[in-house]
Amino acid sequence: MLKFVHCARRRRVRKLVGVKRAEASATPGCRNQKTAGTLKGVRGVPDTLSGCGFLSCRHIPGVRKKRVPLANFLAPLRGAHQLTVIKPKALKAGDTIGIVAPASNIKKDLLEQGCRELESLGFKTYFRSDIISSFRYFSGSRERRLGEFLEMLSSPDIHAIFCARGGYGSGHLIPSIPAELIRENAKIVNGSSDITILLNWIERSGVVSFHGPMVATAIREGTSGYDRSALIDLLKGKQAVRFPVEGTSVLRPGVGEGRLIGGCLSLVIATLGTKHEIDTQDAILVLEDADTKPYQVDRMLTHLKQAGKFEGVRGIVFGEMPNCIQNASQGYTLQEILVDLLDEFTFPILYGFPTGHTSRPNVIVPFGVRARLDLTSSAPIFELLESAVI
Fold first, then answer.
1. How confident is the model over 337-356, as a mean pLDDT?
2. Catalytic amino acids?
3. Lowest-confidence range among 19-23, 234-238, 276-280?
4. Distance CA 24, CA 33 (A)
5. Which is nearest to 300 in space by CA: 344, 252, 266, 261?
6. Interatomic CA distance for residues 181 and 204, integer angstroms
7. C-alpha to C-alpha distance for 85 and 209, rounded to whole angstroms
8. How far is CA 51 from the centre of its chain?
């Protein structure tokens, strides 16, 4: 396990990925820099931009042609639950949220609406001017998207990272985001849909990540788009949280405790066979999707089952699964399919929880935090057993 790795090996890992503390201390904006820079474009913050120093770090593409991702060394550890899990710092009034677009391109007016909503909560917001870039179906080139994320991750002036939207493309960045860099700069990273892959990698790296509403989609809609109370309680408070379960249904009763992990089902499937494959041991699995036909949901769950990913699961919370139908007269429900597919297991199953793709206010859920699912009474309980932040 990581916390027992010999110091000599840790020095070897740092050398291979090119993260040297001597270089970091000489680079403006890095973790141990004494004087923090300021960010241009942050409301209420001076318009001088001293970079975050990420361009001089050797793990950035184009600086060294040959590099060994830290993932190669962490892959055998088989899951973030085997590491010492790091909780990011809680947000407070005046903190700056950095907005990134690691996947598909966005519209600036929608982004601005979301920023105004976050500012109404007492936060400052910052995004780079090139966030509205477009290349094919991405928000700019891979280099732009990677550089943006690493800048926000490394900068001491950014206290949390919120994704603007999903779409497709965040998986391209994973090989160039070292786990050690994530751990050394642990901060709130929030998103959903395609961002599932990124959240899973952060959790596998040993840092709590957050599956929740995004800036240019649900957050811009205000309280009709996301559960404001849940977001504030999770990110600003330090106490455990009980999630709202109105509108959900129990597919199988029971009690389970485990660490939360999951996300958009089609993206969870995309991690299988990779170095950042989802680890579901001792987990309460949160699975959601949208506009997916029942046979496609069947296929993906069968894939997970045959990959052994339901062994050791303590419970499953399915999302609302909007528009996951074949047709209006299909003669069966998705819930019936789910019960049949998971009949051989005994863990409790909750259906209809509003996270990710949902028509109801989007509820943020932390991955890597232990939770409890109690479906033994007429009033289901889905709650955290610990805080998600410190």
1. 98
2. 193, 288, 357
3. 19-23
4. 8
5. 266
6. 13
7. 11
8. 25
Token pair 């109690």 in the structure block, residue: 374
Q: Which of 258, 283, 289, 281 is nearest to 353 (CA)?
A: 289
The rounded distance, in Å, linking the Cα atoms of 308 and 302 is 10
What is the DSSP-derived secondary structure letter of residue 53? S
Q: How far apart (Å, rounded) are the C-alpha atoms in residues 319 and 339?
A: 15
Instruction: Tell me the residue range of the domain where 258 lies.
Output: 249-384
Number of Cβ within a 10 Å radius of residue 101: 31
Q: What is the CATH number of the domain that holds 272?
A: 3.50.30.60
Domain contains 68: no
Does residue 248 contact residue 380 with C-beta atoms inside 8 Å? yes
Query: Which of 23-27, 72-76, 83-87, 191-195 reaches the highest mean pLDDT?
Result: 191-195
Residue among 361, 197, 356, 220 nearest 290 (CA): 356
Stronger pLDDT, 81 or 341, i.e. the higher one: 341
Identify whether 292 is part of a domain: yes
Residue 79's CB is within 10 A of a number of other CB atoms, namely: 20
Instruction: Give the count of domains, the chain.
Output: 1
Tokens 């060994």, residue located: 68
Residues 274-332 pLDDT 10s? 989 999 999 999 999 999 999 999 999 999 999 999 999 999 999 999 999 999 899 99
Average pLDDT estimate for 337-349 = 98
Q: Which residue has the tokens 């909560």?
A: 121
Tokens standing for 167?
């779409």
